[in-house]
Automatic annotation (TrEMBL):
CDD domains: tRNA_bind_bactPheRS. Residues 90-201 form the TRNA-binding domain. NCBIfam families: YtpR. It comes from Streptococcus anginosus. This is DUF4479 domain-containing protein. The lineage of its organism: Bacteria, Bacillati, Bacillota, Bacilli, Lactobacillales.
């Protein structure tokens, strides 16, 4: 679930992205200050727009924002009062973390992609399809997990690449818009001493 807010360019609207629209046709249903965006093919909710959100609480950040449990509760009350089923659940786990490639095999339907098994927590390994030329077993890098918003606004959701499932993205310095990022292709390379699962900290993880 991704919360985004940009009052200057969009207006006083909190956008709550809950699923990947996958390019299918969408429709909107608005009741009061709440609009539900859903897929026409199956009715699945992909986003909520909360209008005049500053009447509910103040948001000072721009772009991707992170809300408190109390603010999520207020939003669910707003959904309920508008006649929708409240369904927002807060997730404060970091979406950019240190990951380690623990296994890598060539993609069977590509000459440059690899299927990587990436450890993103002490007890969690996810599959990520990557084309980075410097990807190798044992490399530690920064992983954007589902629910992340990249600096340019791209949203990370589970997906497929040439028939293989992928649950995140290993990031290059340029994709993270780090200062003095090299323009060549390749994911960020971290010291082997970095701890898997640690939240990404640009001041700690980049000395560009």
């Amino acid at each position: 679930m991704i919360f985004t807010y940009n009052k200057e360019h969009v207006g006083d609207v909190l956008m709550v992205i809950v699923a990947d629209g996958q390019g299918v046709k969408l429709a909107a249903e608005r009741k009061g200050n709440v609009a539900r965006i859903y897929r026409l093919d199956n009715g699945e909710t992909v986003a909520w727009n909360i209008f005049q959100v500053s009447n509910l609480f103040n948001i000072t950040e721009r772009g991707q924002v992170f809300l408190t449990d109390e603010e999520i509760s207020i939003l669910n009350q707003e959904l309920s009062q508008a006649g929708f089923e409240p369904e927002l659940v807060n997730d404060l786990s970091p979406k950019f973390v240190v990951g380690e490639i623990v296994k890598m095999v060539a993609h069977p339907d590509s000459d440059h992609l690899n299927i990587c098994q990436v450890k993103v927590a002490a007890d969690k390994v996810v599959q990520i399809i990557a084309g980075a030329p410097n990807a190798k077993v044992g490399l530690k890098t920064i992983v954007a997990l589902p629910g992340a918003m990249m600096p340019k606004g791209n949203l990370i959701f589970p997906g497929e690449l040439r028939g293989e499932k992928s649950f995140g993205m290993m990031c290059s310095p340029r994709e993270l818009q780090l200062p003095n990022a090299p323009q060549k292709r390749g994911i960020i390379e971290l010291a082997s001493s970095e701890v898997v699962g640690t939240a990404f900290d640009p001041t700690k993880h980049w000395q560009g």
